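Practice problem: predict the structure.
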Amino acid sequence: MRRPSARGPRLRRRAALAALAALGLSACGRKAPAAAGAARVVSLSPSTTEAAFAIGAGAALAGRSRYCDHPPEALRLPSVGGYADPSIEAIVALSPTLVIGARGPAGSALDEALRGHGIATYLPETESLAQIEAMLAELGRRLGAAPGAERAIDRIRARRLAVEQAVKARPRVRVALLFDTSPLFVAGPGSFADELIRIAGGENVITRGGPYPSIGVEHLLALDPDVLLDGTAGEGDAHGAVRLSTLREAPGFRSLRAVREGRVRPLRTDVALRPGPRIGDGLAAVARAVHGDALALAEPAAAPLPRGGGAGREPPSPLAPPPAEAP
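Answer:
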């Protein structure tokens, strides 16, 4: 998402869902080794991996998806594949007591496959701030890190309040958020990105088609948003910028008012398009992109880091401040 379900949306991976179902269901006949003692968790989405570290339960993680890249400690964990195409055998080999991940189109098949091995799952919906907060609270309950979860939720709420205060007197801005260009995928109603746009003082011009619809350039031209948010590239990813640069020169696209008037604004931070514990900073990044970098936002007070968050060894890295990035 990039989500949407995992990073923001990595929508082109949808083709792998059929392969997941076939792999998962064929693996259901074997039982996982019984786990004893402390929880052992495999996380299949970047948002839930970040959540485990943020609440102070990073030491419980035994494995991750290939897309889980924050905090840096997560990269020390063995990878079990992607969310849409995880290796059931690799997961089982880690003897987890729980598999977690943002629920996406593959959720039912994955849940069935893992439960066939006697492995519990927690694959929540995270398409709103309320659901993201509920995910953090439930992970805190399951992993014995409720105080850390409460602090993470408090940080999100404080950031939201700061954004709401900053934009309340500003006129609403008509916005479209692009996730990909080939084809053109955008944030639609029912997505957490749509909610971020609204809270940030924007009005999403995409009002139908589901959370992550594909639309034509002609449709975008007809809507003619004031601001075009570029979510096609994350930090350190030059490919999204190249794609959008090429699209800017395409017939029709260059006729967009936002393109002509220089209001194509990048979201080059995963925090904006990843429904996890840094989503408050993501909301701030969206607000700055919608209204311009001059938007004055109160900075949140520094919060103590939860204890025991490292990948078995070290405390987690501090939550990144909003950059000057996505799901």
